[in-house]
């Protein structure tokens, strides 16, 4: 067999690694955690996410023990440093659902009941700034983020700083919400979800610079074939056409009156010209930088798990 940095598991093999001491999520709990057109069954929560939360609980406990031992060695009460988990993947693959399920399960393990979740959409440049820089059609690409603000946020978290604020993004208004923030105050675990959070280091004048993933203790990549996620994106667009796009003040309200054929064509064009380009150029190339890869089949279910060897 070819040598790989990953161990590959079928779902059945991975499910055997769960711990029966932790109760799985109920149907009602899962319903509250689902994203648009994204579904995860109780069976999948028990067979995939439960073992993953068990593994992560070991990583968190080990990090906490090391922090305590280091503080004892230094004879200094160092600030509490959260364990940071990055979740990456394309638009419409279900990153948010994965992140919320992990957040809920990790809270149930002893030793880390406080688990916060931040989406890097909040660190996108404002619409006004994107328009000024002619980047509206590059929204979601690395250059569309306030990289300095995001790195400062993560550096503050990893420094043990309290009451760190992250901006809030509105998908309805397609912009940052002025004056609104999410506060992160020394949680046990912080999950950071975003498109390009695993991107490798760029260089400035020939010197490598700090990147988002430098602050991660563990990372997950949600993987789906291009043609499959395109169909998911189109389906989500059609759902938005009949819901979000019809709400007062919606940025994409002009799409609400499209008939189905026009909506499918529009969504397909947006995918091919923007999201697919970003996936190929910036997102998919970071796949093998993840500690764990969750591969999904066309029915949204996870069918393979790849865990990086230590």
Concise synopsis of the structure shown:
This protein is an alpha/beta fold and 310 residues long.
Structural key phrases:
single chain; 7-stranded mixed β-sheet; alpha/beta; 310 residues; Rossmann fold; two-stranded antiparallel sheet; globular
Would you count the extended β strands for me? 11
Q: Structural class, from helix and strand content?
A: alpha/beta
Q: Compute the number of structural domains.
A: 1
CATH class: Alpha Beta
User: How do the strands line up in the largest sheet?
Assistant: 1-11-10-9-2-6-3
Shape: globular
- The CATH superfamily is known as P-loop containing nucleotide triphosphate hydrolases
Helix content: 25-40%
Query: How would a crystallographer describe the biggest sheet?
Result: 7 strands, mixed
Number of DSSP helical runs: 8
Beta percentage is 15-25%
Unreliable sequence segments: none
Give average pLDDT, whole number.
Answer: 92
The succession of helices and strands, N to C, reads: EHHHEHEHHEEEEEEHHEE
In the CATH hierarchy, what is the architecture at level 2?
A: 3-Layer(aba) Sandwich
The CATH topology assignment is Rossmann fold
Distance between the termini: 19 Å
Radius of gyration computed on alpha carbons: 20 Å
């Amino acid at each position: 067999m070819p040598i790989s940095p990953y161990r590959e598991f079928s779902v059945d093999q991975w499910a055997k690694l769960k711990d029966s001491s932790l109760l799985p999520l109920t149907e009602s709990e899962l319903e509250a955690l689902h994203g648009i057109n994204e579904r995860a069954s109780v069976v999948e929560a028990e067979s995939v996410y439960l073992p993953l939360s068990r593994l992560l609980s070991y990583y968190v406990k080990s990090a906490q023990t090391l922090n305590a031992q280091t503080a004892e060695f230094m004879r200094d009460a160092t600030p509490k440093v959260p364990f940071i988990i990055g979740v990456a993947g394309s638009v419409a693959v279900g990153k948010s659902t994965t992140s919320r399920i992990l957040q809920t399960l990790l809270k149930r393990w002893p030793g880390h009941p406080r688990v916060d979740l931040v989406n890097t959409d909040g660190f996108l440049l404002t619409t006004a700034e994107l328009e000024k820089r002619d980047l509206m059609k590059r929204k979601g690409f690395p250059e569309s983020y306030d990289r300095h603000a995001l790195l400062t946020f993560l550096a503050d978290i990893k420094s043990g700083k309290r009451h760190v604020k992250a901006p809030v993004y509105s998908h309805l208004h397609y912009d940052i919400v002025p004056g609104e923030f999410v506060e992160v105050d020394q949680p046990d675990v912080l999950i950071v979800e975003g498109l390009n959070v695993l991107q490798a280091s760029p260089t400035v004048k020939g010197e490598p610079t700090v990147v988002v993933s430098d602050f991660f203790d563990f990372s997950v990549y949600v993987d789906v074939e291009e043609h499959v996620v395109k169909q998911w994106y189109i389906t989500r667009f059609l759902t938005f056409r009949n819901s979000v796009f019809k709400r007062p003040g919606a940025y994409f309200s002009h799409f609400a009156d499209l008939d189905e054929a026009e909506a499918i064509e529009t969504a397909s064009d947006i995918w091919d010209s923007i999201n697919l380009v970003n996936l190929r150029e910036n997102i998919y190339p970071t796949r093998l930088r993840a500690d764990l890869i969750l591969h999904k089949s066309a029915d949204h279910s996870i069918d393979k798990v790849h865990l990086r060897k230590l």
